[in-house]
Design brief:
The chain is α+β, with helices and mostly antiparallel strands. Helix content is 39%, strand content 18%. It contains 2 helices and 2 strands, in the order ααββ. Helix 1 (8-17) crosses helix 2. The two termini are 21 Å apart.
Amino acid sequence: IGPGGPTSEQLAWMADRLGFTAIPHRQEAMQQLERLYRLFIQVDAVQVEINPLALTTKGEGMKCRLLITSA
């Protein structure tokens, strides 16, 4: 990932590897990954995690917890 953040290709690759291959889930996953990266940089975090990042069997996003760890 370069200084400008992840490219569309990198975001698509990550979304695919996480199993978000169907549109619109892939696009939404890509947006969330990009936002997660921006948050990581903005707060100078050591770790930023969404747990879980998953879909229900009905294709809906699950509720999750956001954990930000900073130095």
